[in-house]
Amino acid sequence: MRVKTVLVFLGAVALAASATAQTKASGTAQCKSDPAAPVEVGDKAGHSVAVGKAQCTWTGFKIAGIESKEGVSISQDEMNGDTVSSNGWHTASYTNGDKTTAHFQGKATVKDGKFVSGGGTWTYASGTGKFKGIKGKGTYKGTPNADGTVSYKVEGGYSLP
Question: Quick one: average pLDDT of 6-17?
């Protein structure tokens, strides 16, 4: 299901920023989910689980003046009717070649298997190069696009050692 993958992207939002008294950051990630293969749990209709994957393109998100360009979200998604809960990781690549990985958690609403709305929180898990030791957290909110992609507005803060 596309919604599952979209939720994975929500994790991408985690790339945005970090905690209080830190440098603020915001941007938008447009993500396209790979087709998912949900597996029915068997306890009731509409209850299934899946692994989701989404490819994302970033706009406007920078850390220490370095722009994020693309990312990949991987998530574990649980569907209960029209509600999807996701737990995953988003790894973003920056123009200097460094990367950050953020852990995200969120919920989404779907209708007929298509993303309607969703959002959640994220926390940086790691970084490479200039971003090694990054700390931070934030939020994300998704909006569906006519082409089947989802745009995620990501906000938060970060600090570097």
Answer: 42
